[in-house]
Structure formats: structure tokens, C-alpha cells
Amino acid sequence: MIRTLLPPARGSAERTADGLRVLAAVCIVVAGIGWGPASGASLAGVTAGMFLPRLLRVRASFDIAFGIGVLVAVWSSVLQIYITTRWWDVPMHLLTNGLWAAVVYISLVRLGVIADAATLPRPMLSAAVMTTALGLSLGVTWEIWEWIGHTYIDEGILVGYNDTVGDLFWGGVGALVAGLFLPFLTNRSVRPESAPRAAEH
After folding, report:
1. What is the pLDDT of residues 112-139, one digit of tens each?
2. Which ranges does the record mark as transmembrane (predicted)?
3. What is the pTM of this model?
4. Which of 58, 157, 164, 168 is most buried (most C-beta within 10 Å)?
5. What residues contact 98, with CB distance under 8 A and at least 6 apart?
């Protein structure tokens, strides 16, 4: 079953993506020992998320970009770069929100929850609209978690009107860009390869 879900890597790009997952697993221990259990838990969550592109069998370059993006984002939090370098928050929301929006979109299509934009009359526009909506929803969810963290865990977590609106805006832009480039990111229709085609009349 594992070999079915995670077939052996083919080519150097897929092996690189798998190497990033191994690195992320090592980082769980490093972060947990060096920065505490909360940091280790953050790396564990990111490591689990990094298996999604592999399960979805998207283009290997997208898999690599996703892995690098989420690892940089979580280590930026662990090392408090968001506090020491305030502008760093903008490119991270732009990048990671776009990557996550694309992954969630592809996942929902594979699960049959939403339609594959490739089957609709205006595929590029449909994909862009859907990924942007998903990206904004993910952004709102993230901001809620930030508020919970600030209120109940650590007051050092940055919250505020300008910060929240800015994060949502740049995250939405990243999701829009991801939607426009979905055909390149996946290198195929996002439907399962075994999905039956509609009968031709």
C-alpha cells in the first residue's frame, strides 16, 4: 500500500524532493532540542504536509518548491526572523499561501469535492478564481490561529489590523499567481489518471 501511495522516486528531481522530506524529519529533532517542543511540533506538522505533493504526484519541481517554501517559512518562525526582519513576512505569505492554495485545490479535485478547472469552459480563469478563494480562506484560518496563539500562548506573536490585512492581501496575490500557473505546476490534469471520461455523443 505504501509503495502504491508513494512509488519510488524517478529521476533526480523527485529524489531531491524526497531528500527535502528527509531533511525536514531531521529538523524535527534539531528544532525540538534546540528551540523547544513547540518548535519541534511545528516542524513535525510541516514535515507531514510535505508528503502531500508526493501523494498528489504533481510536477517534481513544484514538489521541491513546496518543500523549500514551507521549510523556510517554519524556520523563519523558529528563528524569529519575522520579528527581527519585519518585511520578510510579505514574501513568505506570498509564496507559502500560493503553494498551499495550489495543493489544497488539487487535493479537493482529486477527492471529487470541486470540479477540475480543465473540464470547464474557461479553465485558467476558473483555476485562478478557485485557488484565490482557497488561498484567502487559508489566510483567514492562519490569522485566527495567530490570534489564538497571541491571546492564549505567547503575546510575542504579532497580530494587529495592518498585519492581518497585509497578510491576507499578499497571501491572496500568491494564491492568484498559483492558480494562473496550475497547468505548469501539475504538468497534467489534476484529475486522477484513472478517472472515467464522460461519454462522447
Report:
1. 999 999 899 999 999 999 999 999 999 9
2. 20-52, 64-83, 95-113, 125-148, 168-185
3. 0.85
4. 58
5. 131, 135, 171, 173, 174, 175, 176, 177, 178
